[in-house]
Amino acid sequence: MFNNKEPLYIQVANDIRMNIITQKWPAGFKLPTEKTLCEIYHVSRITVRRSIDELIRENLIERKKSKGAYVKTFTEPKYEFYTLVKSFNREMIEIGEKPITKVLDLDVVTADHEIANYLKIKPGEKVIRLNRLRGKKDKYFAYFETYLSYNAKLFESLINYEDSLYEKLKEHNINLVNNREIVEALLPVKSLCTLLNINKSTPILKRTRFCEDPVKDFNEYTKCYYIGTEYKYYVDFYKK
């Protein structure tokens, strides 16, 4: 589960944060005790405490005296805003560019712990994996690694398909909502340098996207990597 690139407490905090973002641990949820978290992650109590402290600083968790740690409950604002799930193709068209896509891999795989957590299924269940290069005109500047809830008919329809994924989902009456994203800046690993034909000092914008269709019980988890000098991230807000 852990790698050697980041401190353990950061990796534990990342996993707990994902549980909160995906609402596996909803607002008001009481976190497992420090002892239980030590057993889950196979780390020391000091590591667990540093992880919790990190999430408290991010305003995601709060400690209640003599009661433990809880996922923080936020007061609902007077007006609620939302964003629409916007496809890469639509983003490019809106800025006057012609989108291009190259499918690198389309397969049915079994979900590991991480993927199962994000798609709200059990580890070992089948999922669709779709890896693509995205770009405009004749230049690819983004790499998308997507995991989807398994649907046999959807998988068959994606073979040799290189247009908008969201348009294809709509053909199967799958409409994704409740979009959540994590945006971060980082430097590319060697494999990403090869895929995007860049060097290791090129800035990368990473978007981690979580979407779902609650009616169809269908989920999407996508990691998007953009060359930082080739892409601008923007959000449109709509008031209900």
From TrEMBL:
UniProt KW Transcription regulation keyword: yes
Name of this protein: HTH gntR-type domain-containing protein
Keyword annotations of the record: DNA-binding, Transcription, Transcription regulation
Pfam families assigned to the protein according to its UniProt record, in alphabetical order: GntR, UTRA
All residue ranges annotated as the HTH gntR-type domain in the record: 6-74
Keyword Transmembrane found: no
Xref: SUPFAM superfamilies: Chorismate lyase-like (SSF64288), Winged helix' DNA-binding domain (SSF46785)
Gene Ontology molecular function, alphabetical: DNA binding; DNA-binding transcription factor activity
Organism: Helcococcus kunzii ATCC 51366
Superkingdom field: Bacteria
GO biological process terms held by the UniProt record: negative regulation of DNA-templated transcription
